[in-house]
Amino acid sequence: DRHDEVKANFEAELTELIHDHFNPPSIIMWVPFNEGWGQYETGRIVDLTRSLDASRPINEASGWTDNGFGDIKDIHNYPEPAAPPAEENRAIVLGEFGGLGLVTPGHMWQEENWGYEKMQDINSLIEKYEDFYQEIFRMVENPGLSAVIYTQTTDVETETNGLMTYDRAQVKMGIEQVLKAHQGKIPPRINAKTLQFTATFEAELVSPVPEAIIRYTTDGSDPIASSPVYSQPLTFKEPTTIRTVAEFPDGTSSRVASYTIKKVTPAPAVSASAKPGIRVSFYEGNWNKLPDFATLKPSRSTMTGKPDLSYARTDKHFGLVFEGYLDVPTTGVYMIYLASDDGGRIYLDENQLIDYDGIHGANERFAPVALEAGLHPFKLIYFQREGGLGLSVSWEGPGIPKSEITPAFWKN
Questions:
Q1: pLDDT-derived band of residue 361, with 50, 70 and 90 as boundaries?
Q2: pLDDT above 90: residue 168
Q3: What is the mean pLDDT of the chain?
Q4: I want to staple 341 with a disulfide (CB 3.0 to 4.6 A). Which of 4, 114, 214, 390 is the partner?
Q5: Cβ atoms < 10 Å from Cβ of 327
Q6: What's the burial of 139, exposed, middle or buried (CB within 10 Å: 0-12/13-18/19+)?
Q7: b/e for 240-262, b at 16 or more Cβ within 10 A?
């Protein structure tokens, strides 16, 4: 229950806000509450808002606490888009989604930064953004999504999830790329988990628009009207760069996408006498990023079945170091996935493979690596400050669908 004075002040300010901003045509709707903050007597506040301006739709609360009033059903979902069930008398809206973070050195408020999902580079950001809008187009058809709002237009201090940098100096993906994504003008993709190969690589080009004509080149030039039309998978035995574009029935085209296919030599396995399990060491500390664990003394150590948080026995201010071997069953190219909250880093064969440092939510980083069958030295360092937490290591490779790496493959 809220004091009458607080309610009266809120309603007086709401009334003045609507009176002051009644005329601007850029105001689409009134939204009295956001995500439940300070929300009270929702039905009465909707009635008050409508009495002040009946010409605009009313969104009772953007995100979270919906009581069935007003003209809009609004949800928030991060990072991927989602839609609430269709309603007979209210439009359904995705009031917030996205939050894809990208670090832009020289254009940031400070080094410590945050995003709902941190992207590894510009290309992965563009592709994820395009994928999100492809999903939105499907939701427009079913269940009938009426509007979406991406988080957010610019970086805001420590938040690096803007379309523009904090200083507004850069549009991270480029204005044309963002526009084409909003129009559904998506370039062809290579239907493969990784662009690395050891012997031969089969490149299957796919477009989300079945009627699109796919053109490509392999000489480093951009595709033009006379470039080859893709009709069947392309097979390569040497490193190649494929540049490709989709031409649509309305005469427009996508951006040009570039894919570099790399031929790699599998890292050799090591000869060692190995037993089941991986060593884990626990450290106490309050960090904003991964410390140099080599200079610290662990509080305790033991053998465990796999890299996870079971040995932590707490939910804040700690670090873990896992050391042992990854026992690879078959020679080939593998995709290794690190899901962590907060920061983590993987070393494989004494080389840094994945760096997901810093304070962030539970998201995933991944990297391809070619491995010979057998034992490979593995090290994972991790820290948790406070709040949400999580840690897992997964893989995907020859005969293995994406799955968490089970204790059978961890050795010491």
A1: confident
A2: yes
A3: 95
A4: 390
A5: 18
A6: middle
A7: bebbbbbbbeeeebbbbbebebe
CA 356, CA 119: separation in Å to the nearest integer? Answer: 10
Q: What is the arithmetic mean of pLDDT over 173-178?
A: 96
Give the whole-angstrom CA distance, residue 367 versus residue 353.
Answer: 7
Phi first, then psi, for residue 388 (nearest 5°) are -60, 155
Q: Does domain 189-263 have CATH number 2.60.40?
A: yes
* Extents of the domains making up the chain: 4-183, 189-263, 278-411
What's the confidence (pLDDT) of residue 207? Answer: 94
Which is it for the CA torsion 188, 190, 196, 198, positive or negative?
negative
Q: What is the SS3 assignment for 40? A: coil
Number of CB atoms found within 10 A of residue 62's CB:
21
* Tens-digit pLDDT profile for residues 48-75: 999 999 999 999 999 989 999 999 999 9
Range list of β-strands (E), 127-265? 145-151, 189-190, 196-197, 201-203, 205-206, 213-217, 234-236, 240-247, 257-263
> For residue 383, what are the CA distances in angstroms to 281, 356, 360, 380?
12, 11, 11, 10
pTM: 0.77
Q: How far apart are the first and last CA of the chain?
A: 59
pLDDT of 1 higher than 80: no
Alpha-carbon distance 187 to 253, whole Å? 8
Task: Give the largest Cα separation in the chain, rounded.
Answer: 79
CATH 3.40.1000.10, domain 278-411, yes or no: no
Cα distance between residue 17 and residue 227, in whole Å: 58
CATH of domain 4-183: 3.20.20.80
